[in-house]
Design brief:
By secondary structure, the chain is an alpha+beta fold. The chain has a domain at 52-87 and 122-243. Helices cover 35% and strands 15% of the residues. The protein has seven helices and eight strands. It has helices spanning 2-27, 30-40, 71-81, 91-104, 210-213, 221-239, 248-251; strands at 51-54, 85-86, 124-130, 149-150, 156-157, 161-162, 167-176, 182-191. Strands 1, 2, 3, 4, 5, 6, 7 and 8 form an eight-stranded mixed beta sheet that branches. A hairpin with a 5-residue loop joins strand 4 (149-150) and strand 5. The protein is globular. The chain starts with a helix and ends in a 5-residue tail after the last helix.
């Protein structure tokens, strides 16, 4: 009987606790709400405008900040926006070539259906970069190559990213893969004072956005700021894509 009373009391306690727990879960923590808010800010397209391949800039500026490539972050924006399909020209392409080589040598099973004419073309190249300062560019912040790194304790990239001030000024450019014409280029900016950084130097809600980039984007303030600067640039880029053709392949000059 004592066991039955104990079980009954436990069930009653759980029943009383469930509505509150459900309400808290539905509402979500403040960090989770902030994350959801930022993810909702990623622009959405009603239809795809073609396929894109992410192309890293030659300077690979992120290495000097002990960060990973921003490619994964940009891919997250593209996937969630639905504006483009993604084609991988990195390790996945290298692995595909290995499979193709095995198919050509007769190593794969019959009916594997791996051969020529199956790789989807990239309609556009999307390149993430930083705004750089060039003393010979006539004041144009976007003109010029990487200006170099500022020494001492500043730890900043000239013109684009300031570790000390926790601010980032980045660019996104989209290039037609067939004509090499630059269709659009946008600039994104973000700074620490625009956010509420929690204790320990991190934003709890960055797990969904910065976590995709890895390599320090989630765990460092400057990494988090860079993510949101690219979100700003991508949002502006999407608003400029109305002039892109519905079918990039058909709109391009006829291949000879």
């Amino acid at each position: 009987m004592r066991g039955l009373k104990t079980l009954t009391a436990t069930v009653v306690c759980l029943a009383l606790a469930m509505p509150q727990a459900m309400a808290e879960d539905k509402k979500g923590s403040s960090g989770r709400q902030a994350q959801t808010k930022k993810q909702m800010e990623i622009p959405h397209c009603t239809k795809r405008l073609g396929t894109v391949a992410i192309v890293e800039p030659d300077n690979q500026w992120w290495r000097e900040l002990s960060l990973g490539s921003p490619e994964a972050i940009i891919k997250l924006f593209v996937q969630q926006s639905g504006c483009f399909g993604l084609v991988n020209r990195g390790r996945s392409m290298a692995s595909r070539n290995m499979e193709r080589a095995m198919a050509d040598s007769g190593e794969l099973q019959a009916g594997s259906n791996l051969g020529k004419g199956q790789v989807k073309a990239a309609d556009y190249f999307l390149q993430p970069d930083i705004v750089t300062t060039n003393s010979n560019s006539g004041g144009n912040a976007i003109g010029g190559l990487l200006g170099g790194f500022m020494g001492g304790t500043l730890g900043a990239i000239a013109g684009g990213i300031s570790v000390k001030k926790k601010e980032a000024n980045v660019t996104l450019s989209i290039v037609n893969a067939r004509t090499t014409e630059e269709e659009a280029m946008t600039e994104g900016y973000f700074r620490k004072s625009d956010l509420s950084f929690g204790g320990g130097g991190g934003l709890g809600w960055m797990g969904g956005l910065a976590g995709a980039g890895g390599g320090g984007y989630q765990n460092t303030e400057i990494g988090q700021v860079i993510v949101l600067a690219y979100l700003d640039a991508y949002t502006k880029l999407v608003t400029q894509l109305g002039g892109l053709p519905a079918n990039a392949a058909a709109a391009a000059p006829v291949a000879q």
